[in-house]
Design a protein that fits this description.
- This protein is an all-alpha fold and 295 residues long.
- The chain has a single domain, classed as Orthogonal Bundle (MetI-like fold), CATH 1.10.3720.
- It is built from 11 helices and no strands.
- Helix 5 runs antiparallel to helix 7 and helix 10 packs antiparallel against helix 11.
- 38% of the residues are buried.
- The N terminus is likely disordered.
Length: 295
């Protein structure tokens, strides 16, 4: 009597294989790879700023308005006060990435919490939280950031807080939409039938499935935070104790006809940092969006 072989149930993919699949999908986007390399260079510059330029980047080191490559000691030249632009660019990269990452983390924490609570609770809780999100979206973001910084004072933590406060509504709306799409799925209903608590269902079942688009949105929030900080510093409300790309652009605008490089060098740095984050965001979208994984 012959017996048919018993087929073993399919095992879930190992984490290493999932990571390899994600890396392969991300690598197919050449723009995203270029953005990741560029972002890594900015991060390396920020991490090595203290080693490359251990002294205060805001101190006067030479004659004013030395053009780039005119002196080997100052490869990017000096500004109108005789400060080394290369040192300020390196230390400014540290402040820029710090503000962008912390502001994005703040916005993501607030947005995910508000969006998840609104979608799960529904009813008047959903209405109230979404009206609050709309209130934040009605106020022009730049005006809100400038107002908060003017009230609290021009410090880096106040700028970061203000940028985080204006950046959470889109994340909240996206999280709410994702939660609503998963809330009535079969696996959630099965968890309810098994008696799982709402907190466990949200944290262990819905949130991991809703996070991929939120991660993509958060990467774009980092780019927006860099632009907000540059605007605040350009207008003279940035922290005077740190080197900032936006502040350097603002201080050089009065000399744009004679020494345009003072504005151009930090302006190019801002452009490349924001461009790299947008390219990485596109790559994350291609790699994490299930609708695009077979494209």
């Amino acid at each position: 009597m012959s017996t048919s072989p018993v087929l073993a149930p399919a095992l879930p993919a190992a984490p290493s294989s999932r990571h390899a699949s994600f890396a392969a999908r991300f690598a197919r986007n050449r723009g995203a790879v270029a953005g990741a390399v560029l972002l890594a260079l900015v991060a390396f510059l920020a991490a090595g700023a203290g080693w490359l330029y251990p002294a205060d980047p805001l101190r006067i080191v030479g004659a004013p308005e030395i053009w780039p490559f005119e002196s080997w000691r100052y490869p990017l030249g000096t500004d109108s006060m005789g400060r080394d632009i290369a040192a300020m660019i390196a230390h400014g990269a540290r402040a820029t990435l710090l503000i962008g990452l912390v502001a994005a983390a703040t916005a993501t924490l607030i947005g995910v919490s508000v969006g998840a609570a609104a979608a799960w609770a529904g009813g008047w809780v959903d209405e109230g939280l979404m009206r609050v999100a709309e209130l934040f979206q009605i106020i022009p973001n730049v005006v809100f950031v400038l107002t908060v910084v003017s009230i609290l004072g021009p410090r880096i933590e106040h700028i970061t807080l203000a940028v985080g406060l204006v950046s959470w509504p889109p994340i909240a709306r996206l999280t709410r939409a994702e939660f609503l799409s998963f809330k009535e799925r079969e696996f959630v209903q099965a968890c309810r039938a098994l008696g799982m608590s709402p907190v466990r269902i949200v944290a262990a079942e819905i949130l991991p499935n809703a996070l991929p688009p939120v991660i993509v949105m958060s990467s774009l929030v980092v780019a927006g935070a860099i632009l907000y900080e540059s605007v605040v510093s350009f207008l003279g409300l940035g922290d005077p104790n740190i080197a900032s790309w936006g502040r350097l652009v603002g201080e050089g605008r009065s000399l744009i006809r004679s020494s345009w490089y003072i504005c151009a060098v930090p302006g190019v740095a801002i452009m490349l940092a924001v461009l790299s984050l947008n390219l990485v965001g596109d790559g994350l979208n291609d790699a994490l969006n299930p609708k695009l994984q077979k494209r």
